[in-house]
Design goal:
96 residues; alpha+beta; globular; two-stranded parallel sheet
Length: 96
């Protein structure tokens, strides 16, 4: 599950500059708050004002890799078992 892997990466690389945040698109904020408190260790942003529509999220989960200059390097839609190694390798390159 992507959340577990992101939690692991966040703990491992946060002090080296990795920033991870989730974007909630659900209407029921109490549900996401309860889920986040129990399962997610990185910040969750609430998209109540639709400020993230420019990212053209076409599926969930959708992962963006953004470099230190704010440039989107890669976008992945979905999460496949076995992609964890490639995800971590890209993150290591981006936080250098």
């Amino acid at each position: 599950m992507e959340v577990l892997h992101l939690n692991s990466l966040y703990k491992k690389y946060q002090e080296k500059g990795l920033v991870i945040f989730g974007i909630n698109q659900e209407e029921n904020l109490s549900d996401i708050k309860e889920y986040a408190e129990d399962n997610i260790e990185y910040p969750i942003l609430i998209n109540a004002n639709k400020q993230f529509e420019d990212y053209e999220i076409q599926g969930i989960p959708c992962t963006y890799y953004i470099d230190k200059k704010g440039k989107i390097i890669k976008r992945e839609i979905g999460f496949a078992q076995g992609s964890e190694v490639a995800m971590e390798q890209l993150i290591v390159e981006l936080i250098k």
